[in-house]
Hints:
There is one protein chain. Helices cover 44% and strands 12% of the residues. By secondary structure, the protein is of the alpha/beta class. It has a six-stranded mixed beta sheet with strand order 5-4-1-2-3-6, sandwiched between helices. Helix 1 (9-21) packs antiparallel against helix 2, helix 2 (25-38) packs across helix 4 and helix 11 packs across helix 12 (319-333). The termini are far apart.
Amino acid sequence: xxxxxxxxxxxxxxxxxxxxKTRNSDLRIRCRLVLKxxxxxxxxxxxxxxxxxxxxxxxxxxxxxxxxxxxxxxxxAENGTLKADEDARAxxxxxxxxxxxxxxxxxxxxxxxxxxxxxxxxxxxxxSRGHLSKVLRSLDVSLKRxxxxxxxxxxxxxxxxxxAELRALEAQPGPREIVLFADEIDVHKNPRIGPDWTPRGVQxxxxxxxxxxxxxxxxxxxxxxxxxxxxEGDQKVSWLFVRLLRLLYSVYQRWRRVHIILDNYVxxxxxxxxxxxxxxxxxxxxxxxxxxxxxxNRIERLWKxxxxxxxxxxxxxxxTDLLEAIFRYLSRRLQTQREPIGSY
Length: 344
């Protein structure tokens, strides 16, 4: 049993010095447990102050009584070389970067059981599932939801050539010319459900309306100047895009030409749009991206931020409140111009 003042002063000083200098958190806890129990605290009380389980304090006390200062050291230091050395960690990363079918399994996703088998066969290193789980966490490998995408039907060379042209246009437009990125965003009164930080044992609830309501924003984003021009409508149809084109024509009257980079959605190519383009002359030029290449449209990231910051798990009970929250967010983040009510 520890009694106040039982430890010799040199021993106590060495333990205090070890507590201050070590970078090993487990060793630091063992040192502090010994010091507190030597100061008269029980094992349970010392564990409560240090923040560990009472069983840990009892085990540390027993080992220290039997072995002295050497009982504070981690016995696993004598276990030999680590299984997860640098070579093994690099090999695990390479394996996880592939798919199970690359190693003869029919599964489309990894499981710990399959990983253990593949690592043992390829690296000649045997892990338990629990140990492998810790190694994966140390490598920042975790379960993540994949992002679905649609492959572009164009050949690779054609797609890359078109993307390079549009990037060059954005980087160096002509004199008194501006490049904008255009797209639409769907706003639903029914909230988008997404992950949120939640305490253990707590379930968050998001109220959903009995009947959904939708609005649409069509916007043109000036990435260089941080400016967004947008219009609002209750349908995602050609007239909404035409209203955006006419608003851009009036906003950028002093510019010689307005280049708009956008996707191939049908409302961007309809007869109504073609008639409006003929009416506006050559001031506005549409540049279509290759099919299914949303990552090349800079406004897509802006719309994602709107969903992440406003519409996800929102608690707005009316569409008016939700739209006003979106407008406030856009106004704080960007220079925005909204179409006047009743225009066009």
